[in-house]
Design goal:
Strand content: 15-25%
Protein name: DNA replication and repair protein RecF
Domain AAA+ ATPase: 30-381
Oligomer: single chain
CATH class: Alpha Beta
Function: The RecF protein is involved in DNA metabolism; it is required for DNA replication and normal SOS inducibility. RecF binds preferentially to single-stranded, linear DNA. It also seems to bind ATP.
Family: Belongs to the RecF family.
CATH topology: Rossmann fold
Helix content: 25-40%
Number of domains: 1
CATH architecture: 3-Layer(aba) Sandwich
Binding site for ATP: 38-45
Length: 385
């Protein structure tokens, strides 16, 4: 792993085939800042979603792969990007490939023409962070939304985290099913709870390490004059307390004991009540020292942007790769001072930034510094001077 961010990595060319509203798109860009402008529904977010599929998971919309295929198309889609990096040029590809009438379509991943086992393989070449309008209610919404937000943070620095989370969810479903159907089968439950405990402690430890590193970086780099206030972070949950206070082996033993003792209660509830699936990410507005949920709407938006910018810096520090940043309709909700501060902070990150907005004037100050592109249904062209 490199000790310094690879700040010059760029997507030089993005090709879409039968993806969302694009029957065919071949888009070349040359600058570190890319702004996509156009009316709502024109297809701006579809471009960001296509890029977001080059990391594990279901992309920034969390959609099913089949729903991404163009309506009226063959039911499959392909996304390819040419990555221009200091260490060479690479072609990355992903998409959905039909397997015939009797079989389900399958996800494909390719690197320089060779097949890859999963999207986690792309982490060797790029990392991605993003911010979308649906996160505006993050601090006031349910804990599950913040857990997904947290896991995406972890996934950007640990490409295997998603696989561990998915394995834990499967193990928990198996335990819940046995509790419902065969609650007296202690041997089976013991075996399942051993697997659950191993996965749970690994998931909780990865979350805690990422939050600890991010919180430390925020405090080290905070600027009181910044238009984006700093956040203080912590994790809340019984499993998080175990991981924070005990060695991993002892935490596993303690959690297995909790699972064993909680079997009647979990069976009555129909789910496992203690574990990483109950963790909450607590965020406070640092300068005011108040819960983020009680801050004003504008303060929450600025706090969220500051958190994503700090996460991007952490990704660069930990991976050696300056991340690609995807910002969907962010600038429209900022006053001129914060908008200028955002553009300045984005340029300082060193990675390529893709932004969307309905109004071209939002990006007027980036003239000569960004590729500003007009998006219309099915096509994208440079904005005329």
């Amino acid at each position: 792993m490199s000790s310094a961010p690879l700040g010059q990595s760029r997507i030089a060319r993005l090709i879409l085939q039968d993806f969302r509203t694009y029957a065919s798109l071949d888009l070349a860009v040359s600058r570190p800042l890319v702004a996509l402008v156009g009316e709502n529904g024109a297809g701006k977010t579809n471009v960001l979603e296509a890029i977001s599929l080059f990391m594990p998971g279901r992309g920034l919309r969390r959609a099913e792969l089949g729903d991404m295929a163009r309506q009226g198309g063959p039911g499959s889609f392909a996304i390819s990007l040419a990555l221009d990096a200091p260490y060479g040029e690479h072609r990355l590809g992903t998409g959905l490939e039909p397997q015939g009438e009797a079989a389900r379509a399958s996800r494909i991943c390719r690197i320089d023409g060779m097949g890859a086992t999963s999207p986690a393989a792309f982490a060797e070449f790029l990392r991605i962070v993003w911010l979308t309008p649906d996160l505006d209610a993050l601090f006031r919404g349910p804990a599950g939304d913040r857990r997904r937000f947290l896991d995406r943070f972890v996934l950007a620095v640990d490409a295997e985290h998603g696989a561990r989370v998915n394995a834990l969810e499967r193990a928990l479903r198996s335990r819940n099913r046995v509790l419902e159907e065969n609650p007296d089968d202690r041997l089976w439950l013991d075996a399942l709870e051993r697997e659950v405990a191993e996965l749970a402690i690994a998931v909780a430890a990865a979350r805690q390490e990422t939050v600890g590193r991010l919180a430390a970086l925020i405090l080290e780099t905070r600027e009181d004059a910044s238009p984006f206030p700093f956040a203080t972070l912590s994790l809340e949950g019984e499993i998080d307390t175990l991981v924070a206070t005990l060695p991993a082996v002892d935490a596993e033993d303690r959690y297995r004991a909790i699972l064993r003792d909680q079997r009647p209660r979990d069976r009555a509830a129909g789910r496992t009540l203690v574990g990483p699936q109950a963790t909450d990410l607590l965020v406070r507005h640092g300068p005011k020292d108040i819960p983020a949920s009680t801050a004003s709407t504008g303060e929450q938006k600025a706090l969220l942007i500051g958190l994503v910018l700090a996460h991007a810096r952490l990704v660069a520090n930990m991976s050696g790769i300056a991340p690609f940043v995807l910002l969907d309709e962010v600038a429209a909700h900022l006053d001129p001072r914060r908008r200028a501060g955002l553009f300045e902070a984005l340029e300082a990150l060193g990675g390529q930034v893709w932004m969307t907005g309905a109004d071209p004037s939002l990006f007027a100050e980036l003239e000569g510094r960004a590729d500003v592109l007009q998006v219309e249904p099915g096509r994208i062209e440079p904005v005329s001077a």
